[in-house]
Design a protein that fits this description.
Elements (H helix, E strand, L loop, with lengths): L7 E5 L7 H10 L3 E5 L3 H9 L10 E4 L2 E4 L1 H11 L7 H9 L18 H16 L8 H11 L2 H8 L9 H9 L4
Parallel strand pairs: 1-2
Antiparallel strand pairs: 1-3, 3-4
Helix pairs in contact: 1-3, 1-5, 1-7, 5-6
């Protein structure tokens, strides 16, 4: 079990799927992490039988002596720990419902600092670019937001590095199915 946030351990399949937003927030916060990629159904069943998967599903993030599952719960944990969940009750509320999207003047969605919702939107925009090239051409504010957040040092290093996963392929989908994940 991992006890040091700087050496978190993410278990999932070798693809974006439900874990890419976790990778992005870890990159933004500077959390160093290792990954285990599930290769077969037996590995997945071993985790289930060991009780490591609270809801019998991955991704699994081992961090701070805990074994966390559920993508959004993992993101919220990291966001809260690294002060990316809003500083005031109002910002925290806005984070939950994205009410401040059009009101922020900082360039971020809520408040004056990057938050988990900025990273969630970034992942969506990156997927748009990957799967529907040119889809954002008529949305300069979204494109500017994407460029701003993508250029932050930790995020840029992640996006340009080996931990960034490629687009989801038919092979990836079939691999997930062989693991019993879909």
């Amino acid at each position: 079990m991992t006890t040091d946030t700087k050496k978190a351990h993410l278990t999932y399949v070798n693809g974006r799927g439900l874990s890419e937003s976790i990778r992005i927030i870890m990159a933004a916060t500077g959390i160093e992490f290792q990954e285990t990629f599930l290769q077969n159904k037996e590995q997945f069943e071993t985790l289930r039988k060991a009780g490591d998967l609270l809801f019998m599903q991955v991704p699994l993030l081992e961090i701070d002596g805990m074994k966390l599952v559920q993508t959004n719960a993992i993101i919220r944990y990291i966001a809260r720990k690294y002060d990316m969940y809003g500083k005031t009750l109002e910002e925290k509320t806005s984070m939950r419902c994205l009410a401040e999207v059009s009101r922020s003047t900082s360039g971020y969605l809520v408040g004056d600092n990057i938050s988990m919702v900025d990273l969630t939107l970034l992942e969506c925009l990156l997927n748009c670019d990957d799967y529907i090239p040119g889809a954002l051409d008529d949305f300069p504010k979204l494109k500017a937001f994407q460029n701003k957040v993508s250029s932050l040092p930790g995020i840029k290093a992640f996006l340009d590095g080996p931990q960034r996963k490629g687009k989801i392929t038919e092979e990836y989908i079939q691999h997930c199915k062989t693991l019993g994940m879909g």
